[in-house]
Amino acid sequence: MSKRCEWCGTDPLYVGYHDEEWGVPVYDSKALFAKLILDGAQAGLSWITILRKRENYYAAFDGLDPDKMAYYDEAKILELLGNAGIVRNKLKVRSAVTNAQAFLRMRDEEGLDFAQFVWDFVGGKPVQNEWASMGALPAETERSRALSKALKKRGFKFVGPTIVYAWMQAVGMVNDHVVGCFRYEEVKRMTK
């Protein structure tokens, strides 16, 4: 059996996520946005909770497409709040719509590509950390604090530095697989 990061335990869904997705660099703006919404939904919960509901999120939020979500009205928000397949937290549901609107403002008014904007915070390529154990990983970093601040300035919600750092790990902006994990070197080779 290959050694892997301890956080995923033995749950097959969690192990699959660790082995195939976590830390793989994502460069598509809409995919990055979708993952940011899911990380925001996780605030105060365990990631496995969101992972188990992920497909429900994609179904309920039109594929987590900001071009559609930005125009949700109150009736749609109430429908989402009645959906047992997602986390029915009023602030989180409303923030997903607010974030879609902020995403569109960045793109359409500021002419900013979301992917390029966020990747600029790591110099355009993944930061290759070398953690010996999970206990060494930080909850946030200078980069996550700076990116959090920049996103908040543009109107994004549920993007505190801890959420942003977890998202940066998930989308491969930082390689936080521990060095003994079999995915560490695999992910390290995935730089653009």
Note the main attributes of this structure:
192 residues, mainly alpha, two-stranded parallel ribbon, 10 helices
Provide the fold topology:
Blueprint lengths: L11 H9 L8 H14 L4 H14 L5 H4 L4 H8 L8 H20 L4 H6 L7 E2 L13 H12 L7 H10 L3 E2 L6 H7 L4
Parallel strand pairs: 1-2
What report would you give on this structure?
The chain is an all-alpha fold. It is built from 10 helices and 2 strands, in the order H-H-H-H-H-H-H-E-H-H-E-H. It has helices spanning 12-20, 29-42, 47-60, 66-69, 74-81, 90-109, 114-119, 142-153, 161-170, 182-188; strands at 127-128, 174-175. A two-stranded parallel ribbon has the order 1-2.
* Number of discrete helical segments: 10
How would a textbook summarize the main sheet?
2 strands, parallel
- Share in helix: 40-55%
Distance between the termini: 29 Å
Round the Cα radius of gyration to an integer and report it: 16 Å
